[in-house]
Every structure is written in C-alpha cells, then in structure tokens.
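User: Sequence in, structure out. Go.
Assistant: Echoing your sequence, followed by the structure tokens.
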Amino acid sequence: MKVLLINGSPREKGCTYTALSEVAKTLNEEGIETEIFHIGSKPVQSCTSCYKCSDGSRRCVIDDKVNEILKNADKIDGIIVGSPVHYAAASGAITAFLGRLFFASAGAFAYKPGASVVSARRAGTTAALDQLNKFFPINAMPIVPSQYWNMVHGSAPEDVKKDAEGMQTMRTLARNIAWMLKSFEASKKAGVPLPKKEAQRERTNFIRQ
C-alpha cells in the first residue's frame, strides 16, 4: 500500500515538508510505502474548463506535474495534501493543482483515504484546512481524522520540530491512515464490495424556467 504526500509549498524542504516528513516516517513504521511529491516553485496553471479530460483518459491538456500523478493513480492508495497558510488560505498553487488533478482523475481516487496538513507561523490554519478538505468528499474520498486539527506552527523547520503537539498530531494522523488502509484491505479480502453507484448522476440547477 502506498500513500502519496503532496507538498504544496514553493519551498521544497520547508515547514510543510517537515510536517509531511513526520507523517511519512510514521507511515513507514506502520508498513506503508510513501512518496513526498513536491509540486515545485513554478507557477501552476488553473483549470481552463476545456473539458478535454472528460474522455476518461486521466490526463490534463496542460502537461505538467499533474499528469505525473495521474499516470500513476492506480498505484496510489491514499493522498495527504500539505500547504503553507497564505492569507488564511491554502497556497494558490496547490488549489490550482488539486482542481486539475481531481477533475481529470476520472474517479481514480474514489474511496481512497484523504487528509490535509497545513503549516503557519501563527494563524489562518483552520480556514486553510477547511478549504483543502473540500476536495475529498466531492471525489468520494473519506477524510482521515487525527487527535486535533492537522496543523503545525513555526517560521522555520526547526520551529516546527519544536511544536510537540503539532508533530504528535502528524504521527496520530499517520497511524489513523494506516489503520484505515489496512481495514479497507481486510474488507476487500473478505469480499465486501464498494458502495453501489446509481446508473445516472443527477445534476440539479437552482434556476428553473
């Protein structure tokens, strides 16, 4: 089993990476394979609503790191998204990245556990978490809890490592994800089917003639 940890910070080895690394370390101790994927520091194009990905190809017409994840989607069993807090929100780069990733995924991540992690100097964390967590349920992904909000505090990696509660929250999150993945695997072996989908998805507009 493998969990992909997406680092949405422009700094590859900064505070967000420090938090994700604590999660990855604990997941590895639980026998779960991990990969920390840095989206980079270059600008990330947001979705242009071209709908070319609607053919189910699991490929975005904007050929960047989004497609690197999409081509390996079947090998990913869970996703953790990390972001710094910018103006009490997740980074613009990670929201643009996730919008395209999930829109072009053709349901590849459905029923796979998801979680968010944010880092901040001081405040804005819960607003950023709320923003990121909205990506999961709309894609049929169960959100994994921890013992507190998944946040760490500090202006530098050394500060984050001193945030004892934050680091413990990261470890608890990892153990909860590992437990959920193992539970899903056990249910699969026991023959428990995935939830039944209705043949046609209803889309109701709020304005009617």
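User: And one key feature?
Assistant: The chain has a mean pLDDT of 96.
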